[in-house]
Sequence to fold (530 residues):
Amino acid sequence: MKNLPWLAANLPGYLRFRRALADPERAQRALLGRTLRANAATAFGRAQGFATIRTAEEYRKRVPLADWADVAPWVDRIAAGEAGVLTRSPVRTLEPTSGSSAAAKLVPYTAELQREIRRAVAPWIVDLYGRRPRLIQGTAYWSITPLAMDEERAASPVQVGFEDDAAYLGGFWSRLVDATLAVPGAVRHVRNADAFRYVTLLFLLRRRDLSLISVWHPSFLTLLMDALPEFWESLLRDVERGTLTPPAAIPGAVRRALGTRLAPDPRRAAELRALAPDALTRIWPRLGLLSCWGDAHAALSLPELARAFPGVEIQPKGLLATEGFVTIPFAGLWPIAVRSHFFEFLPGEGGPPRFAWELEEGRTYSAVLTTGGGLYRYRLQDRVRVEGFVERTPSLRFLGKEGHVSDLRGEKLHESFVAGILARLFERMKIAPRFALLAPAEKGPTGYVLYLETVETPPAGLAAELDEKLSANPHYRLCRSLGQLAAVRIVPVARDAFSRYLEHCRRRGQRMGDVKALALSPLGGWEALV
Fold:
């Protein structure tokens, strides 16, 4: 019943979103007008003349499209402690996410951006539970994002990273959702991967009433469940006794915080002892929904998840990013979150940007968003296709990242980021490779291999150091720490690898004149280089 206050609080937002679906143009124009007026006196607003912009058309004409390289200098000023840079609303935290040419971006989060996120979460949650009322009586497990690194936190006078996932919603709303969760937010502070899995599983096993699991990449959940057999007996003892005995040490403050949520439960332990650790739907008989990424490359992991949880519905999340919510699951489709941010879309075949109310079914676009966190006409570099409408609001399907981005398990490695790392490593190690390409491993555990042709013998520590440098990307670092990705391996390749690379690209349909020497390929199939 703890879900009822959470649902009641979200009902007004659900009703407003339902009304906005019928007139997305009105909702979007009003949202943009409020954003421009609120931020006209900021440093960025003065530079762009927000005070004199009256329409969405003027905004599109006068404010340039932006990539992270355009935003970064303004965020640097925020990180240094300057106020009123991008938003009038104070920046509450700088949330890390993967970058393109940089290891990580620090996305400003303000109270207004949190309100915008709540406007997307409200209709999603009410629709989710309204269509599946039996889930209301259970608890949920939500896992959204990793913690910031300690060095990221120390580098800025502004807080870097939220302390727990519920904090994305802010204040009162965070407390409401926290009351519905099966696993306390303090678990995010457990940095050892085995200990993290153990503690998470312990809290999940204690909840027979678990009804909803929400994670980012499907492999996160399958790897978590793969750990159950190894820890099974120890977990059951902890459930029975109300103790906490993870396989690795955890910080004392975290242990104390978690300990307050544990009590002996011999009845639940006895129930679990009658089950096998792979009988997941019997362990959690009320589990009715798994929410996770289900589009683009992540779709390849859904069959394994379905096999692990037979009969449990899997709901693809739609397009959610640290920067903002583009679409939400609603009414069986994924409409644009028209009450959250102001959207524009760049047509896949070129041409001027389109507004959300101008999109055409079957066409492909790239998302651009303006948010209350201070991103203005920001190119998210996510490709989407219009697959229908909810009333008059387009429903979008995420197709993948633009450009050369590899995303096996949610790590989002960008080609330019990988290229910069390799260039610096080769220079420092005095290596002059004839060919170097990082690509998904063909055999063995999921991860990356560096195909390398060089006269010099690569130093023994090259693979380990490359893996360490890639871990500057927070999502890659998390995937590695959780075992979703194996360590990078070096694969020496035969002489004249680039010629074979060109031929391979040609066979894949590229014109020879269009083939570029890239540091990263998101595709496999490079065995011919060896």
Observations:
- Residues 111-131 form the longest helix (21 residues).
- Confidence is low (pLDDT under 50) at residues 146-154.
